[in-house]
From TrEMBL:
Key word Transcription regulation present: yes
Ranges annotated as spanning the membrane: none
PANTHER family on file: HTH-TYPE TRANSCRIPTIONAL REGULATOR RUTR (PTHR30055), TRANSCRIPTIONAL REGULATOR TETR FAMILY (PTHR30055:SF224)
GO molecular function: DNA-binding transcription factor activity; transcription cis-regulatory region binding
Organism: Xylophilus rhododendri
Lineage, uppermost ranks: Bacteria, Pseudomonadati, Pseudomonadota, Betaproteobacteria, Burkholderiales
Protein name from the UniProt record: TetR family transcriptional regulator
Keywords: DNA-binding, Repressor, Transcription, Transcription regulation
Length: 201
């Protein structure tokens, strides 16, 4: 086994162990010592991969996001129907938000950031970097004349509110069931249709 492959396996084991620890014990109660023990690696190995618990937690959120985007072409296509493209983009987001790991870890993140606003700002900034695809798509559709000119960020905010209002906040804050595959598709299609009814030319 190559050194690089062993390193990658150890990093994956650390992330997997951290997910389990954060879900079971919360952010504050989870220590780097606990994660190292669960992953069966030394503390030195753990800190070689992640310099802090905040960095480790942020990496988990990034991996959850990346897992939901790897198979989709996110670029705007002038030759495809707007509804089809936007619904596909939103479905990607809904699927990520509806994941069991993501919802559980979102609860952990919210609890951890209530008393530490700077931690919340850092995590949100990291996630925002991953959410640029939707903004880029809106701007491209505006430049192509298929969406009305205006504040693209506001359009994204409207879409986010529709999606998270049904597929995230009720589950995180009130314990409602996660959306199934059919409900996810219906939500993505409905949100796309509603926003396009206002902004499409």
């Amino acid at each position: 086994m190559s050194t690089q492959r062993l390193t990658d396996r150890k990093r994956a084991a650390i992330v997997q162990a951290a997910v389990a620890e954060f879900r079971a014990h919360g952010f504050e109660a989870t220590s780097m010592d606990r994660v190292a023990a669960s992953a069966e690696v030394s503390k030195r190995t753990l800190y070689n991969h992640f310099s802090s618990k905040d960095e480790l937690f942020a990496e988990i959120l990034m991996q959850l996001w990346d897992r939901s985007t790897t198979t989709l072409d996110l670029a705007y296509r002038p030759d495809r129907p707007l509804q089809q493209q936007l619904a596909a983009l939103l479905l990607r987001k809904v699927a990520m938000l509806s994941g069991e790991d993501f919802i559980d870890l979102a609860r952990v993140a919210i609890a951890a950031t209530i008393h530490t606003p700077e931690r919340a700002q850092d995590m949100l900034a990291r996630l925002a970097q991953k959410e640029n695809a939707l903004l880029t798509w809106i701007q491209a559709a505006q430049q192509d004349g298929r969406l009305r000119p205006g504040d693209a960020a506001l359009v994204v905010q409207q879409l986010e509110s529709l999606v998270k209002g049904a597929a995230f906040w009720p589950q995180v804050a009130m314990g409602q069931p996660r959306l199934g595959t059919r409900a996810q598709k219906q939500l993505a299609a409905a949100a796309a249709e509603l926003v396009l009814s206002r902004h499409a030319t």
